Amino acid sequence: MLTERSVLFAVAMVCASLMAPARAADYPDKPIRFLVPYPPGGSTDPIVRIIAQKLTETWKQPFVIDNRGGGGGNVASDLVAKAPADGYTVLLGTVSTICINPALYPKLPFDPLKDLAPVSLIVSGFYLLATHPSFPAANVSELVALAKAKQGQFNYASGGAGSAPHLAMELLKQMARFELTHVPYKGTGPALNDVLGGHVPMLFGSAASILPLMKAGRIKVLAMTGSKRSATMPEIATVAESGYPGFEVDSWYGVLAPARTPPAIVGALHREIARAAQLPDVRARFAALGLEPVGNDPAQFAKIIGNDLVRWGEVVRRGNVRID
Questions:
Q1: DSSP code of 157?
Q2: C-alpha–C-alpha distance, residues 202 and 66, integer Å
Q3: Does residue 41 surpass a pLDDT of 90?
Q4: Is the peptide bond before 39 cis (omega within 30 degrees of 0)?
Q5: 8 Å CB contact between 309 and 5
Q6: pLDDT tens digits, residue range 133-171?
Q7: With DSSP H G I counted as helix, E B as strand and the rest as coil, what are the percentages for the chain, rounded to 5?
Q8: Is the confidence at residue 237, as pLDDT, over 50?
């Protein structure tokens, strides 16, 4: 079981290793395999395509996208963890696959801290708490009051047990001390369809999937999970300012490489990802998806991973969350 002390120690070792000197003058001189832990057609696809296209243009070497769904994202993560540490196999990591799965799967075939090297966050986003338009709550406080008056009688949907949106609601339940019944689906699409159809009243969903429906009047948004309001949708309150200070759930996507990848190669990858993420056309495309470009350095990314491993591990244990 991961403890806060063990996580902080491992993060410190990662940060120290990234300071070691190495050379990567010829990198890259062949295609780079970019493993994605989900099937094609999901919400990660635009993110991967945008960044892979820019890196391919810069380095004149293709970033070959390889979708390897399965095992809750663990299949792709394990493939990268066991790949040669030469910078030619990298992983798209998410908060779910890197920081939540270790608490859900007691016997993972890889260790996210020991076997993967953080390179850089590409983007960070948030989730939206959304309900069917007929649900009789206009904000988070009203939702909580209704749920407390009818403990366990309301359902909520998610794209799968143990997913980040599932745990976002679990965190809200733990902070506000109320009960809802979880209805997991095999993917965000089916979950959202049942909310739209009025079969399940609410869910946490990505901005990319919720905003078009909100603008069309087909779904109602009560709050967003960021630490502050979004500049592109300032009318939507945060959960934190709705009576639950400290509530924050980030939806992040970053690049990781096999552990022991030479620091100079990790650094080269980071610099190009950070540069590409800040290009005006890339920023605009990410903003349309409700995402903010980050491009932080490996040590900063490692600290985020360490903090989220501890945080989500506690939420999983307190809620006795199971994936079966």
A1: E
A2: 33
A3: no
A4: no
A5: no
A6: 999 999 999 999 999 999 889 999 998 899 999 999 999
A7: 45, 20, 40
A8: yes
- Please check the confidence at residue 5 and state whether its pLDDT lies above 80: no
Alpha-carbon torsion 236, 276, 297, 34, what sign?
Answer: positive
Note the Cα 135 to chain centre separation in Å: 28
Residue 147 backbone phi and psi in degrees, to 5? -65, -40
d(CA 40, CA 140): 34
User: What integer pLDDT is reported at residue 17 of this predicted model?
Assistant: 47
User: Whose CA is closest to 96, among 34, 42, 21?
Assistant: 42
Q: What pLDDT does residue 324 have?
A: 67
What phi and psi values does residue 131 have, to the nearest 5 degrees? -135, 165
Tens digit of each residue's pLDDT (9 = 90 or more) over 54-99: 999 999 999 999 999 888 899 999 999 999 999 999 999 999 999 9
Residue with tokens 């076997």, as numbered in its chain? 115
**pTM for the whole structure:** 0.86
Q: Which long-range contacts (CB under 8 A, 24 or more apart) does 302-308 make?
A: 302/11, 302/14, 302/15, 302/18, 302/118, 303/11, 303/15, 304/121, 304/252, 305/11, 305/98, 305/99, 305/112, 305/113, 305/118, 306/7, 306/8, 306/10, 306/11, 306/113, 308/95, 308/98, 308/99
- Within 10 Å of residue 260's Cβ, how many Cβ atoms? 12
**Contact (Cβ atoms closer than 8 angstroms) between residue 33 and residue 269:** no
Between strands 89-94 and 250-258, the pairing is antiparallel
What is the residue whose two structure tokens read 């095999």? 186
For residue 34, list its beta bridge partners: 65, 90
Beta bridge partners of 241: none
**Angle between helices 263-277 and 280-288 in degrees, nearest 10:** 70
